[in-house]
Amino acid sequence: MVPRQRVRHEDAWFEEMDLDAVLARRPQVVVVDELAHTNVSGCRNEKRWQDVEELVAAGSPCSPP
């Protein structure tokens, strides 16, 4: 399990999937829930499904290592 990142938004802290940490590990399988989730402002992607698209692209045989 990859620890979540803490992201500050206005006066509160939220935990979000750490996309960069998952990509750095280069796992063969990733389980991601809440595809319709809206990420906190400040995350790279607005929606979780966009994070998943990045993960899929990174695992593609056509992607550079």
Brief summary:
This protein is α+β, with helices and mostly antiparallel strands. It is 29% helix and 15% strand. A two-stranded antiparallel sheet has the order 1-2.
Features:
2 strands, 15% strand, single chain, 29% helix, globular, two-stranded antiparallel sheet, 65 residues, alpha+beta, 2 helices
Description:
The protein is α+β, with helices and mostly antiparallel strands. It has helices spanning 19-25, 48-59; strands at 5-9, 12-16. Strands 1-2 form a two-stranded antiparallel ribbon. β1 (5-9) and β2 form a beta hairpin. The chain is globular. The model has no long low-confidence stretch (mean pLDDT 89).
Q: Between the first and last Cα atoms, what is the distance in angstroms?
A: 22 Å
In DSSP terms (H or I, runs of 4 or more residues), the helix count works out at 2
- Rg, alpha carbons: 12 Å
Proportion of residues in extended strands: 15-25%
Q: How would a crystallographer describe the biggest sheet?
A: 2 strands, antiparallel
Shape: globular
| Overall number of strands | 2
SSE order, one letter for each helix or strand:
EEHH
Share in helix: 25-40%
User: Which ranges are low-confidence, i.e. pLDDT below 50, for 5 or more consecutive residues?
Assistant: none
Query: Structural class of the secondary structure composition?
Result: alpha+beta
What's the helix and strand layout?
Blueprint lengths: L4 E5 L2 E5 L2 H7 L22 H12 L6
Antiparallel strand pairs: 1-2
